Amino acid sequence: MKSLIEFVRPLLLGIALIVLVSAGLLALDDSGRKSASAMPRVAVVQHVSQAVMDDAVRGYVEGMASQGFVDGKTVSLKFYNAQGDLPTANDIARQVTNGSFDLVLTASTVSLQAVANANKQSKVKHVFGTVANAASSGVGVSASDPLDHPPYMTGISTFFPVGRALKLAREINPGLRRVGMVWHSAEINSQLFTAAARKACQELGIELLEADAENSSAVGMAAKSLVARGVDAFLVTGDQVVMVAIDTMVSVARADRIPVFTIIPPNVRKGTLFDLGANYVEVGHDVGVLAGQVLAGSDTAKTPVSNHVPESLSLNLTALKGLRGNWQIPPELLASADRWIDEAGEHRKGGALTAPAASAAASAASR
Prior knowledge:
alpha/beta; Rossmann fold; eight-stranded mixed sheet; 14 strands; 44% helix; 19% strand
């Protein structure tokens, strides 16, 4: 019997050791699963692929990272894009508000509205950005009290400087008398921008001619109708329909030798004369910081909705070529630009002004 015990004892010790190691591995695996499941899940929803939206979303990610929420490490981000389609936007909104996410970030007024409508049961916290005026979006945000908003929601509005853009256009061409604007009258943002443009034009003595386009395919025809009415330039605001068709606007304008100016940087890359608007990477960063604070425990109900417009000016000196009328970009304006394009390429503030830029301005001034 003794020999049997001596024979079995090592086997029992080995089995016990295997059991202990296996239990340890299972514990580690379970700990890892718990850690992964404890990682907050965030949905990032944008309505359409545009430079301004893409910049803002990039800022969202950078802003959250600055607060310690790095995608794949300390937070799990899932990105959604409706590609400008409203039914798709509503479907996405239902998906992200079903309780499977800890936070939803939206980029654009349309995305804000879609998610707010789907989130009436307050299943998920919501931080919004790239919105002109949240108070006018119909989601319960007060125009007078920054703390009067749905308790599960907060964010940052950014109303573009429409009046300043029109004033700048008049400074570049003192002879500017008639501005054309294509817009989609069903968009809340467009209604706000158009009202601001009408007010500014009245103050500046500029005649504003308008044409409605209910989809991007109608933008070209609407723009041509304004050309036929004798506009001196096109203004493009934050209208989603028109922004998708910015190439069409520029093409129609070039055919008539008139410029396009916008309040959405950086459309100078598409051929506009200038863009006076917001730096949306910076705006997005601020929204991302806010989102990080909410993930860290900040109460959305006690977080005021704010308005932030870090102004950014982009110029395109090559767009001066061939324009009819007296369009000139003075040196002091060029010196104030955050971005400019000339025959040598794109430049950012802080770089040296190249000779081609000066010659482009000079050639335009000589016309």
